[in-house]
Amino acid sequence: MYGQPIVTAYAPAAPRLGETLRAYLALTKPRIIELLLVTTVPTMLLAARGLPGWRVVAATLIGGMLAAGSANALNCYVDRDIDQLMRRTRRRPLAKQTVTPRNALIFGVALGVLATAWLAVTTNVLSAGLADATILFYVFVYSLGLKRRTSQNVVWGGAAGCMPALIGWSTVTGTVSWAAATLFLVIFFWTPPHTWALGMRYREDYAAAGVPMLPTVAPATVVTNRIVAYTWAMIAASLVLWPLATGWIYGASAIALGAVFLGYAYRLRAQVRGGGKVAPMALFKWSNTYLSLLFLAVAVDALLLH
Predict the structure, then answer these.
(1) Residue 16 — pLDDT band, cuts 50, 70, 90?
(2) Cα–Cα distance between 39 and 43 in angstroms, integer?
């Protein structure tokens, strides 16, 4: 009709192959996978009391990447609505709509099936079962069950991130030992301080998305007190491994690294209590360094002393 604007529909340009591949890679959260693999290889060295065969290492790393990629892609599928609301996550592929939810779901499931089959064939059934349990726990227990319902979400949901220690041990020995369980506990107690420090930095993001991360529902004094408590528990677990399966190289490293971690935790608590500038990202960044160096000490100890 005369006087009405003419609306012309423009079809969006098809994404290039490189952009599509990068989007699917981003679904797997490569940085998280790197951290998981950092804990896997040293655990394998400790289990083997030296160098395991390169074939089992390669098979475990491939299977671990596939399993972690599956869990992360499925997590992106579950969290696609809240990822759009958070500054930290709004550039993820589903939030930007560069990958459709259906394709992300298929991709995540396919990676999980491939990871399970790969580990079962190249390592053993126990390792494949542990990887399968990790994916299911991360998706159904953490992403769907805990994340949006309780402030203890990362405490119990973080167990999924501890599983590479058990998987790495089982691919070498075919069993799970007390030493592997102790490494599991180190990562389990490490996860809350690591995640809550990040949650303090992005408190408004989690609040906007309706995710009851502890820093969004509790005073900062409560959060930092729990960070200190979990840091002590983490250090205690790390020291249990010393007489159980390692030597003086690991023991000295665990004490020194733990002391630095405690320093960051107590400093963050003092900043909150003092009412001045609070810098939680300093602890968050150190937590990544701590875990990497601690497991490096596991590897060096296994190679030099065993």
Answers:
(1) confident
(2) 6
φ and ψ of 299, to 5 deg: -65, -45
Phi-psi region of 50 (alpha: psi -120 to 50; beta: other; left: phi over 0): left
Distance CA 242, CA 248 (A): 8
Q: What's the length of the chain?
A: 306
Q: DSSP code of 12?
A: P
pLDDT averaged over the chain? 92
**Which CATH number applies to 24-169?**
1.10.357.140
pLDDT score of 12: 46
Alpha-carbon span 104 to 111, nearest angstrom: 11
* Residue 271 to residue 111: CA distance in whole angstroms: 44
Whether the model clears a pTM of 0.85, i.e. scores above it, the answer is yes
Residue type present at position 156: W
Q: Which amino acid is residue 207, in one-letter code?
A: A
DSSP state of 10: -
Query: In whole angstroms, what is the distance from residue 158 CA to residue 31 CA?
Result: 16
pLDDT category at 280 given cuts 50, 70, 90 is: very high
- Give CA–CA dist 45/301, Å, rounded: 9
